[in-house]
Amino acid sequence: MVAQTQLPQLSGTSFDETVKMAITTLTANKLRSLLTMLGIVIGNASVIAMVGIGQGAQRLAAEQFESLGPNTLFVLPGTPEERSTSFDFTRTLVYEDALAIAEQVPAVQAVAPQINLNRVITYRDKNTNDPVVGTTPDFLSVRSFKVARGRFISDLDLERNNRVAVLGAEVARILFDEGNPIGKRVRVGAVSFEVIGVMEQKGSFLGEDQDNRVYLPLTTMANQVVGRTSPFGLEVTIISVSAKDEKSVSAAQFQIKNLLRLRHKISGEDDFEVQTQKDILQIVGTITGGLTLMLAAIAAISLLVGGIGVMNIMLVSVTERTQEIGLRKAIGARERDILVQFLVEATILAAAGGAIGTLVGVSGVLVVGALSPLPAPISPVAIVLAVGVSGGIGLSFGVFPARRAARLDPIVALRTA
């Protein structure tokens, strides 16, 4: 149905009049205009939401790594290639390596080697299958953990291979509900341990619950739970290290590498890796940044589809309004007036869709932030970019229909109508 638009003398049509006429034309076909804007709305909302969620993931990872302390380093066994391609990589670190780092590296303040594996933990008729960590007393200071009740592992526990255990907050809740587990005995696999402490709730770290762990003396873990698996000493899964201060991190990393190369008699590629908190955060940031960019690119396709929808509807509008165009040109409208008229209509559709899409996208980010641990920040850059792109798409995709309308011969247009 042809929109009925008042036709003033257009030989000198002002821009205000052009905008009013465009709004009148678009509101005459409300449903069609709304459906045309839908693609732009979805595109804008998707881009803003994906960028916000991606930045939230990066910020959450940064906050979690900062909770470790800026001075933390991690010594990992095997090469990076082995760890990324196989779960059965060479276990090259031993307890004696950790002792050597603590004694011979000047830039190091504390060292906490770990043996990690999963075991079934049982108390009476309750059980849970969770990670078990064999470690040393320095674990608390290196990893910034605290004990809520009882005590942590002591040097005496290590020397005597004592069968004592410290429960994570979640393990204590599962096995003992609200009861006091101190002094009770739990089974880790087939071995019985006395509970001497319960850890303070720590929360998740990169998606892993840190409260569902059980901590044992490293020597007890190696000798009575795992068994000796290396002829060179007590094999460990990872060695956590804290430098004396933030300025000492690089020195500690360099000194640890040199010491372990000497101890392992390495002349070629290292069979270990020393990572700082900054190194790991950079890796995580690269991954989350890449995912954010990929999701934003996918969402941006919706903007392209929306632009095609705008062009399609404007072409239909040109066909429907042939008589109006011929009449306006017959009474003095110039090609530039007709061109501007259709470009303004296309731009209004895209800009309105962009504004609505921005509101939807921002609302989505706020909902995600409220219902999840993600900070989910609002990105002003993403908003400006999405709205600017949507307006640009309306202008760009409106050019072809507008030029087609502007070049209609008034005589032919009136006859065709």
What is this entry, summarized?
With 417 residues, the protein is an alpha+beta fold. Helix content is 56%, strand content 17%.
SSE layout:
Blueprint: H1 15-28, H2 30-66, E1 72-77, H3 80-85, H4 95-104, E2 108-123, E3 126-135, H5 139-143, E4 147-150, H6 155-160, E5 164-167, H7 169-176, E6 185-188, E7 191-199, E8 204-205, E9 208-209, E10 214-217, H8 218-226, E11 238-243, H9 249-263, E12 272-276, H10 277-320, H11 322-330, H12 335-371, H13 380-406, H14 410-416
Parallel strand pairs: 3-10, 5-7
Antiparallel strand pairs: 1-11, 1-12, 2-3, 2-6, 2-11, 4-7, 5-10, 6-7, 8-9
Helix pairs in contact: 1-12, 2-10, 2-12, 2-13, 4-9, 10-12, 10-13, 11-14, 12-13
What does this entry look like structurally?
- Residues 297-410 form the ABC3 transporter permease C-terminal domain.
- Keywords: Cell membrane, Membrane, Transmembrane, Transmembrane helix.
- GO terms for molecular function: transmembrane transporter activity.
- It is found in: Cell membrane.
- Residues 33-258 form the MacB-like periplasmic core domain.
- The two termini are 13 Å apart.
- 56% of the residues lie in helices and 17% in strands.
- The protein has a 6-stranded mixed barrel with strand order 2-3-10-5-7-6. The chain has a two-stranded antiparallel sheet with strand order 8-9.
- The model is unreliable at 1-11 (pLDDT under 50).
- Helix 2 (30-66) runs antiparallel to helix 10, helix 2 runs antiparallel to helix 13 (380-406) and helix 10 (277-320) packs parallel to helix 13.
- The protein folds into 2 domains: 15-63 and 283-416, no CATH class; 91-270, no CATH class.
- With 417 residues, it is an alpha+beta fold.
